[in-house]
UniProtKB/TrEMBL annotation:
<keyword id="KW-0677">Repeat</keyword>
<keyword id="KW-0597">Phosphoprotein</keyword>
<dbReference type="InterPro" id="IPR000159">
    <property type="entry name" value="RA_dom"/>
</dbReference>
<keyword id="KW-0963">Cytoplasm</keyword>
<dbReference type="InterPro" id="IPR001164">
    <property type="entry name" value="ArfGAP_dom"/>
</dbReference>
<dbReference type="InterPro" id="IPR011993">
    <property type="entry name" value="PH-like_dom_sf"/>
</dbReference>
<dbReference type="InterPro" id="IPR008936">
    <property type="entry name" value="Rho_GTPase_activation_prot"/>
</dbReference>
<feature type="domain" description="Arf-GAP">
    <location>
        <begin position="440"/>
        <end position="565"/>
    </location>
</feature>
<feature type="region of interest" description="Disordered">
    <location>
        <begin position="60"/>
        <end position="210"/>
    </location>
</feature>
<dbReference type="GO" id="GO:0005547">
    <property type="term" value="F:phosphatidylinositol-3,4,5-trisphosphate binding"/>
</dbReference>
<dbReference type="InterPro" id="IPR001660">
    <property type="entry name" value="SAM"/>
</dbReference>
<feature type="compositionally biased region" description="Low complexity">
    <location>
        <begin position="63"/>
        <end position="73"/>
    </location>
</feature>
<keyword id="KW-0862">Zinc</keyword>
<feature type="domain" description="PH">
    <location>
        <begin position="642"/>
        <end position="749"/>
    </location>
</feature>
<dbReference type="InterPro" id="IPR037858">
    <property type="entry name" value="RhoGAP_ARAP"/>
</dbReference>
<dbReference type="Pfam" id="PF00620">
    <property type="entry name" value="RhoGAP"/>
</dbReference>
<dbReference type="InterPro" id="IPR001849">
    <property type="entry name" value="PH_domain"/>
</dbReference>
Length: 1325
């Protein structure tokens, strides 16, 4: 730096840098010359209030440079003038408030600023109107004053001004700007060019008044240019803004449109006006190949395949534009970030639909900006619409495929092509915002320590986040898990965005420690099987980071661990030294950072560190003042002992599919196998040192033990890896096989699930699952299958057992690869993360859940430990055959009985007995055959004779006591089954006057059956007769239960047809009426209204409703629908309700419709049985309802093409439609329907429940009425029972009203023609 440059005043120097706004800050700091600024640092600039990173870099770079010639010569260009308000549109001022500055003489852009003295004003032609008339004006040579005088308000504004080259804009306030602050001349420029005199002649026309140039704002002028678009151009680093006219072709004619134009080093932009922030179009200067003058006042900008024509207001201005554009495009290679003739380098790109436009825009996210193009071709040739600076942007998701990009000036509402793409777009724009707000200076400093360039947890390169209290630098994915620990454990900060947090002392802490040294404390005992990699999933990261920092599981324990007093004393001593790592170890091994030092002058370790000038120690303690201490275990954690084992095994080639065939001995090869340091390796022989293959314990996800006769070798086991490979090993030695299985399982099963290793498991491994309390996130669980019991250890929970034969339902959803296990009060969803091992788990669990043998304990059981076959047969006979004459004495058809027995044996849970599909005698014979063929019998082989001998005891009380003693000796399943059967037979004999099966007849049938005798004597019958006769006393039945059963039997015996008693509510739940339930909905409605003496008035519509309180839904029953099946399908939260149908009048007009289509909002949720898939919100779908099916499409237009299949399709006959939707689902409208789908397939019954929302109530009524019209037409063909002659028959579609004759006519008419009742000629009008 020369002496003259060193003596330059700060005021002049900042004027050259265009940073005059910091003059007062430099003067306040005592800096008056450039020489005094040579030793400035970034921290000093921060203290002076200069916080913008770009301004800091500019000041530091120029103050430390050896010469200022780069600022004063015309080769490099002056820096970009800063904006007073970032991203703010140019402000417009009227002539009255801001009079035009004196015009200047146009000067050639190629002139050196040092050569500019007192130029003479030249004559020039100025465009004054559309007729292109020109006038000349001259002025005398004058010297421009340093501070130009304020022009008079009455001074006329010139028609046009000279467009000065960049060299004349760097330091002086020429005719283009009128600043309230006195302009500072360039250090090399003592005089300004003289102003042009005002134009003489007519009043000004054409362009509006010149906008005033605010201090440090963009240069502005008034120029005419022919263009459809507004263009803004900036030569190299100085931005120019101006009005131009752009030439466009409309109806084969050229027109010029006035636009506001900007030019910078990368883009030529044009706007509607000077107040707009976002352009109408942009042209990349990288693609401009030529700029030349064409005709009067015109010039053209030529790109690789397009030509843009512009028109200025004068020749001088046109020449200035051409010169500046040529300089910009010619010198852009030295200044621009873009390569010539190459498209913008993007981080993410693709088509997005912008709300308000019919077509999609090609959108590009590049660094800290978002660019919009009409199509991909425009992107490739560098011609776009606008760019959006992301430093003021914010991204918000609005819908399934939509999101908003919000700026202070406009909201851009985008829609992606899919939900997955939407997530990718949102992530890309969030990264762009982070890039715009980021500063890499801190990150570069932190990464100077080599170990800090890799994540402390997973080893990912270039981590950009840090936990400032834990002193670790981590990657973005690990930082998300650190935030989950909470700020009391991990204080996460960004290296690039949280600039104010990173003090010099904190940076030095991270440089002095580094991830490698810090991990010598935090990760001293990490087992290889638990270590993270950059590709680890979020669940593995969460588990590892929780163990590492919350539990301190892997830390290196301090020798003073557990001794609080000594830890505190050691901390107070150590903070006086420079050993920061020791302080970290003391703090996170239990030392109290707020402990008392015992010194009044330094009462805390923080004050003690400051007193000894240990700033790094003070910084570490300050960041941990509120940190919660780690878990203090009495016994410090020690890593698990290494499992090792070796020996010969026989191995087949690894496979990518499940083994379905038997592997012969010839297919196995003898291999030497070793298990050591968490790696299972196999060699050609025990002499080889290089393994043929290896499998890390962390890669093993499942171990399956095969049955002894499964393959050629007696004992085999299978290993499943994460890479979807299956390894089969075998041996003939049972002890060796057992030791290998135990060792391998111990190597990959974590300590939290160690109790599983003590079980004699058939299969053990890792699966992901969800339970009914939390369906949003999956948990990692460790499972072991032992017989018919599935043992599970879910994370953060104790072990539990799932009895597979007691499940209410077991199903596999193939599409989503989910195994659903439904037990009482809970549903467990096991997910198939990998197809290979998941298919093995499904098959094994299904086999274990089925009937495993011929004993009672091996059957599929209910929650009360009763075999499902017994429970189903008893329930069906109670419902449909209790009053059947000769029940249990008549035999069913042998072929049908054998088929039922086989179905029950294969999977009793999936078989549902239904009236009409199964015969009562077939079911009763199936039940008897089951007990006769039962292994060991119901009474067990060892006690059966004792039961028979007890029947001969004469003393009744002694006999009952003996029976009770024998009953208590039975296994639990046998006892529960016997009680259920005797209770059923007790009910059967109570209605013997109807079924002719009294106590003696039942004993004759069931005695030999249950005791499995030949029936030659009545001994077995006498025992069964005693059990039925003394049922109350032997089984100690409670009085209330006995009274209820007696009441039911009394009602059955006194009611024709043997009806069941049910409770029906009238209008509201407070009033009840107990009536027989074996009737149709019409009969039930009539009966209730008759009993209550309620007359039916005109225009009143009464219906019988099925109401479910839990699901918040209800539906009217069809008049011929039988009530009894509805009652049996009820849960505890459902009931029947007789009430008026107030909406019937409004629905009558829709009853003729047998088809409908339209848009509805759809949501599917798992039913109570766990079927279906869960979606988080309601989504728009297009539905088509016909007489046969309900079809759902993703979009409206797909229905127009027959080749497009619907997304889903359901047969209408299997649908039940209810009014109402659960409030907890937060439906978008209150007009909703709940639809329940039940398949009728015996092999695989299925139940689904989903929800539909309509926009209006009439729309909902129309859909509901159409459903009922179609379904009731179907029901009409299925119901064979004739409608009774009743006074008040009421139905969902046949409301009863008016006189008795009218009501009868309504029902009769509907019975003959379901659609005739809705014609205008009938009585409903």
């Amino acid at each position: 730096m020369s002496q003259s440059e060193a003596s330059m005043t700060v005021l002049d120097w900042l004027g050259v840098l265009r940073l005059e706004q910091y003059t007062e800050a430099f003067q306040t700091a005592g800096l008056t010359t450039l020489g005094e600024c040579r030793s400035l640092t970034q921290d000093q600039l921060e203290q002076m209030g200069i916080s913008l990173p770009g301004h800091q870099r500019r000041i530091l770079a120029k103050s430390s440079s050896s010469s200022l010639t780069s600022l004063t010569s015309d080769a490099p260009l002056p820096p970009v003038p800063p904006r007073s308000t970032p991203n703010c549109p140019p402000q417009r001022f009227t002539a009255a408030l801001s009079p035009s500055p004196p015009p200047r003489t146009p000067v050639s852009p190629k002139l050196d600023r040092n050569a500019i003295q007192t130029p003479t004003v030249q004559n020039r032609s100025v465009s004054q109107s559309s007729t292109s008339t020109s006038t000349s004006s001259t002025s005398t040579s004058t010297q421009a004053p340093l501070h130009p005088p304020d022009p008079s308000p009455s001074q006329c504004r010139p028609q046009s001004l000279a467009f000065l080259p960049p060299a004349l804009h760097s330091g002086s306030n020429g005719g283009r700007k009128n600043s309230p602050v006195s302009p500072i001349p360039s250090p090399t420029e003592s005089q300004s060019a003289p102003p042009l005199p005002p134009k003489t002649g007519a009043a000004p026309k054409g362009p509006p008044p010149v906008p005033q140039r605010l201090p440090y704002d963009n240069c502005k002028t008034s120029v005419c240019c022919c263009s459809k678009n507004i263009i803004c151009f900036q030569s190299f680093e100085c931005e120019y803004t101006v009005f131009l006219f752009v030439c466009v072709l409309i109806d084969r004619a050229l027109y010029y449109q006035r636009r506001w134009v900007k030019l910078d080093v990368d883009y030529l932009r044009y706007f509607d006006n000077d107040k707009e922030v976002y352009s109408k179009g942009i042209i990349s200067t990288a693609f401009i190949t030529n700029v030349s003058s064409v005709g009067e006042l015109k010039f053209e900008v030529v790109t690789s395949n397009r030509t843009f024509i512009f028109r200025a207001e004068s020749e001088a201005e046109r020449n200035d534009w051409v010169t500046v554009l040529q300089d910009c495009t010619g010198g852009r290679s030295r200044h621009s970030t873009m390569n010539p003739n190459s498209p913008l380098s993007s981080d993410f790109q693709g088509y997005l639909e912008l709300r308000g436009l019919r077509s999609k825009l090609y959108t590009v996210v590049a660094s800290d900006k978002v660019f919009l193009y009409k199509n991909m071709e425009d992107y490739r040739i560098g011609v776009g619409i606008t760019s959006i600076d992301m430093n003021v942007g914010n991204v918000k998701v609005t819908d399934r495929r939509s999101f908003d990009l919000t700026t202070p000036y406009r909201i851009f509402s985008f829609m992606a092509e899919s939900e997955q793409l939407k997530e990718q777009w949102v992530d890309a724009m969030h990264n762009a915002i982070g890039e715009a707000l980021s500063n890499s200076e801190v990150a570069d400093q932190i990464w100077m320590e080599r170990s800090n360039s890799l994540c402390a947890d997973c080893g990912a390169p270039k981590p950009e986040w840090a936990a400032i209290n834990l002193c670790v630098v981590v990657c973005k994915r690990c930082a998300g898990q650190h935030r989950g620990l909470g700020p009391s454990i991990s204080k996460v900060r960004s290296l690039k965005m949280d600039r104010k947090v990173w003090t010099e002392e904190l940076i030095q802490v991270f440089l002095s420690l580094g991830n490698e040294r810090v991990n010598s404390f935090w990760a001293a005992n990490v087992p290889p099987s638990e270590a993270l990699t950059p590709s680890s999933c979020s669940e593995e990261r969460r588990r590892f980071i929780t163990n590492k920092y919350r539990q301190g599981k892997y830390r290196k324990y301090h020798p003073l661990y557990g001794n609080q007093k000594e830890l505190d004393n050691a901390l107070c001593i150590n903070v006086q030294s420079s050993d920061v790592l020791e302080t970290l170890s003391l703090i996170f091994c239990g030392a109290d950072v707020n402990c008392s030092t015992g010194m009044p002058s330094c009462p805390s370790p923080l004050s003690l560190a400051k007193a000894h000038s240990q700033l790094l120690q003070a910084e570490l303690i300050k960041n941990n003042l509120n940190t919660v201490g780690l878990a203090m275990d009495v016994n410090p954690y020690s890593p698990p002992l290494c499992v090792s084992h070796n020996g010969f095994l026989y191995k087949t080639a690894s496979m990518a599919r499940a083994i379905t065939e038997r592997k012969a001995r010839e297919e196995f090869s003898r291999r030497w196998c070793t298990l050591n340091d968490g790696t299972f390796s196999y060699y050609e022989s025990d002499k080889n040192s290089n393994p043929n293959g290896a499998l890390k314990a962390s890669e093993i996800v499942c171990l399956a033990v095969d049955a002894s006769d499964r393959h050629g070798y007696d004992h085999t086991f299978e290993l499943y890896s994460e890479s979807e490979r299956l390894y089969l090993f075998g041996t003939d030695d049972a002890d060796s096989h057992k030791e290998w299985v135990k060792s391998i399982a111990k190597s990959f099963i974590p300590a939290s699930a160690e109790p599983l290793l003590r079980l004699g498991f058939e299969r053990i491994g890792r699966l992901k699952c969800k339970d009914g309390l939390n369906l949003q996130t999956s948990k990692v669980g460790w499972f072991a299958l032992v017989g018919s019991t599935l043992h599970a250890y879910l994370e953060d929970s104790r072990g539990e057992e799932i009895h597979l034969r007691k499940l209410n339902e077991l199903s596999i959803q193939q599409d989503n690869e989910v195994l659903v296990l439904v037990e009482r009060g809970r549903t467990l969803y096991i997910e198939g993360e990998r197809k290979l091992d998941f298919s093995g788990w499904c098959g094994a669990i299904q086999i274990a859940a089925g009937s495993g043998g011929d004993t009672l304990s091996q059957q599929q059981l209910t929650e009360t430990d009763i075999p499902i076959i017994v429970h189903s047969c008893i329930g069906y006979i109670t419902q449909c055959g209790l009053t059947s004459e000769g029940i249990y004495r008549k035999s069913g058809v042998n072929s049908r009985v054998a088929a039922l027995c086989e179905r029950f044996r294969r999977d009793a849970r999936s078989l549902c007995l239904r009236e009409g599909e199964h015969q009562v005698d077939d079911v009763s014979t199936t039940l008897k055959r089951f007990f006769r063929e039962l292994e060991e019998g119901l009474f067990t082989s060892e006690d059966a004779k004792t039961w028979l001998s007890t029947a001969s005891i004469q003393d009744e009380s002694m006999k009952i006591s003996q029976y009770q003693m024998l009953l208590n000796r039975l296994p639990h399943v046998n006892k529960a089954t016997l009680q259920a059967l005797i209770n059923h037979l007790y009910c059967v004999q109570r209605v013997s006057d109807l079924n002719q099966m009294n106590l003696h007849n039942l004993a004759i049938v069931f005695g030999p059956t249950l005791f499995q005798t030949d029936g030659k004597d009545y001994t077995a019958g006498r025992a069964i007769e005693d059990l039925i006769q003394h049922y109350i006393h032997i089984f100690e039945v409670r009085v209330r239960a006995h009274a209820r059963a007696s009441y039911i039997m009394l009602c059955i015996s006194t009611t024709p047809g043997g009806h069941i008693i049910c409770t029906v509510y009238l209008e509201e739940k407070k009033e009840t009426a107990t009536i027989p339930g074996s009737m149709t909905a019409a009969e039930l409605t009539c009966e209730v209204l008759d009993r209550r003496n309620i007359p039916v008035k005109d225009k009143e519509y009464w219906s019988c409703w099925e109401v479910c309180n839990k699901e918040e839904m209800e539906r009217p029953l069809h008049y011929q629908e039988r009530v009894l099946p509805i009652l049996h399908s009820f849960g505890t939260e459902s009931h029947l309700l007789i009430k008026k149908y107030h909406s019937m009048e409004a629905m009558i007009c829709y009853l003729v419709d047998v088809s409908k289509h339209g848009l509805m909002k759809f949501r599917e949720e798992r039913s109570i049985l766990g079927l279906g898939r869960t979606t988080g919100s309601f989504n728009d779908r297009y539905f088509i309802l016909t007489s046969n099916s309900l079809r759902m499409y993703k979009e409206v237009r797909v229905r127009l093409t027959e080749s497009n299949r619907p997304e889903r399709e359901w047969p209408v006959k299997n649908l039940k439609v209810y009014l109402g939707i659960k409030k907890r689902l937060r439906p978008p409208t209150c007009w909703g329907l709940t639809v329940v789908y039940e398949s009728k397939k015996q092999e695989k019954p299925e139940k689904q429940q989903w929800y539909l929302c309509c926009d209006t109530q009439p729309e909902m009524r129309e859909w509901f009425a159409t459903f009922l019209s179609i379904q009731d037409g179907l029901q009409q063909t299925r119901v064979s029972r004739a409608l009774p002659d009743t006074r008040h028959g009421n139905v969902s579609l046949i409301p009863l009203r008016g006189s008795e004759n009218e009501m009868r006519n309504s029902v009769a008419a509907f019975s003959q023609d379901p659609l005739a009742v809705s014609q205008p000629t009938n009585h409903w009008d």
